[in-house]
């Protein structure tokens, strides 16, 4: 597994944990750490989204 695949997987896991916290406890960890829709939180959200798209590629790798 390439390093970019590992980074994408970590970001996908972070995103999944954050969505789980939002769904179960109505608590957004990214907003709590970086502020609601701050520049940093928007960057985190963008990176997690891009990683999710990259994860589609991981499904079809041999």
Structure description:
The protein has 62 residues and is mainly α. The chain has one domain (3-60). The chain has helices at residues 3-25, 29-34, 39-60. Helix 1 (3-25) crosses helix 3 (39-60). It starts with a helix and ends with a helix. The mean pLDDT is 95.
Task: Summarize this structure briefly.
Helices cover 82% and strands 0% of the residues.
Shape: elongated
Strand content: under 5%
Cα-atom radius of gyration: 13 Å
Give the ordered list of helices and strands.
HHH
User: Count of helices?
Assistant: 3
The end-to-end span amounts to 10 Å
Number of domains: 1
Largest sheet: none
Report the mean per-residue pLDDT as an integer: 95
Return residue spans where pLDDT drops below 50 for at least 5 consecutive residues: none
Q: Specify the helix fraction band.
A: over 70%
Structural class: mainly alpha
Note the topology.
Elements (H helix, E strand, L loop, with lengths): L2 H23 L3 H6 L4 H22 L2
List keywords for this structure.
single chain, 3 helices, 62 residues, mainly alpha
């Amino acid at each position: 597994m390439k390093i970019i695949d590992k980074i994408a997987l970590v970001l996908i896991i972070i995103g999944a944990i954050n969505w789980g916290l939002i769904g179960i406890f109505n608590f957004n960890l990214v907003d709590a750490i970086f502020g609601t829709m701050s520049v940093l939180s928007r960057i985190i959200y963008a990176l997690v989204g891009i990683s999710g798209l990259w994860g589609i590629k991981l499904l079809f790798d041999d």
